[in-house]
Amino acid sequence: MIKLTVSQTTGTINCRERNRLVTSPKSDAYDCVDIKERDTLILACHFCNENDDDSAKNWYKSDRLGLGQGKEVVYDMKNEEKDNRVILTTDHDLVVYNFTENDTGLYYCKRYGSEGISDKFSFLVDIIISQNSSEYVSGNVSKWKDYHDSKIHPINEQLKKANSKELAYLKHSLNLTFEVTNHWGSWGECDACFKPQGEGTRKKFGYCRVKILNKAKQYRKPKNKKEEFLMNASEMGCGSKKLMDLIPEVSLLAKIIPYFIQEDKCDTVCGKDKLKQFLIGKGTQFKYRKTYVLQQDAHLIIVCPESSIDSSIVWRRNGKVIKTGYNDDHVLVDSFNSLYLTDVTPDQEGNYTCYVGDMRMQQVKVFVVKKSQILTKAFVRYLGYLAFILSLTLSCYCAGLVITFNRRRYFLTFQELKQDEARGIKHNFLF
């Protein structure tokens, strides 16, 4: 997210990252946007940190996910700019002042004359009703792990064990399950001015999201608008009013989770001197550095920053050059010098770097987590649970046998039971 000034109003642009992690078409259909009522909404019709291409575009709004084309957004055209609530900037950014509940929905931008709905610049915008939407927990990666273990993991465990009528229906009839996670924004600028070398800081937001997982192998026609929305949605904000209206039980658990701000050490040149910025990549350090932790079989697209189609770009993996057109089924550099990692395995882990001319432009470290490793840890954990249950059950069973044996003299024999039956005496049995 970046800052934009529209006339006298400054707001935060909501834009999509070009180098975002895509695990499935559905998960990449839109970005969630959290906004408080009466705030200003700004949506970009271009990728973050890129300029508009000046082609004719328009914004559309829909209240239904994935079903047909929405209606064109109606812009205000009054003479006095302060009287306009919904406007379109010269960069095709959509601005909505004094946002209300009637403005919520799916917004998307597409070029005039294009076929179908473009999902490159789609945003699901909803009002945040949670008090915790303005609260944050900040720290490094270790702090985030503590935050995850103390705030997110317990909620996910409760969601797994929840057996209310509504959640049971969604799980068994629609194959829908819910999981709380963090959606990471991009890194902000490095704040290193007037600080010792290496003591600068940069930040990025970890937005709280409720992922909607659909494990259905066959499509099932929804019975109402609620089921239609949930079956087409991939995620919603934890404090979303829409989530509260659709699934109150999940909302009550998720809305108490604050956002997380990850802070990291960094070093950069203070000021706006372009020559100094240029010289960053001339030294031994790369101008941009990123780290990705991917699950096995995930996909990732990486574009070398500050480059064009005419730039001389070289990609390297662990120091070895990856030539344009190289393809080993998992790693590909296309004709536009974009790096593609598809269906990744642990073999694709490594240090990927790109050079623009003789400048060290970007360093990307990629780590891959095996599915088998995750499953093995879960299996070992559940084996421990099973061993505890079996030992407790066996102990109770043996104790019962000992007690029964010691009290055997109090039990009636078969002959005594027959005699009582002949006398008309009845006994109540437990089985």
- Our Rg estimate from Cα atoms comes to 29 Å
Oligomer: single chain
User: Which of globular, elongated, flat, extended, rod-shaped describes the shape?
Assistant: extended
Uncertain runs? 1-10
For the biggest sheet, the summary is: 5 strands, mixed
Helix content: 10-25%
The structural domain count equals: 4
The first-to-last residue Cα distance is 68 Å
| Helix/sheet category | alpha+beta
The amount of beta strand, in percent, is: 25-35%
Count of discrete alpha- or pi-helical segments spanning 4 or more residues: 8
Give the strand tally.
Answer: 24
What is the overall pLDDT average?
Answer: 81
Organism: Brassicogethes aeneus (Rape pollen beetle)
Family: Belongs to the FAM187 family.
Transmembrane segments: 382-405
Protein name: Ig-like domain-containing protein
Notes on the structure:
Helices cover 24% and strands 32% of the residues. With 431 residues, it is α+β, with helices and mostly antiparallel strands. It has a 5-stranded mixed β-sheet with strand order 1-2-5-9-8, with no helix packed on it. The chain has a 5-stranded mixed β-sheet with strand order 4-11-10-6-7, with no helix packed on it. Strands 12, 13, 14, 15 and 16 form a 5-stranded mixed β-sheet that branches. The chain folds into 4 domains: 126 residues, Immunoglobulins (Immunoglobulin-like, Sandwich); 141 residues, no CATH class; 89 residues, Immunoglobulins (Immunoglobulin-like, Sandwich); 48 residues. It is extended, with a radius of gyration of 29 Å. It has 8 helices and 24 strands. The N terminus is likely disordered. It is a single-pass type I membrane protein. InterPro entries: FAM187A/B, Ig-like_dom, Ig-like_dom_sf, Ig-like_fold, Ig_sub, Ig_sub2, Immunoglobulin_dom. Its main location: membrane. One of its GO terms (cellular component) is membrane. Belongs to the FAM187 family.
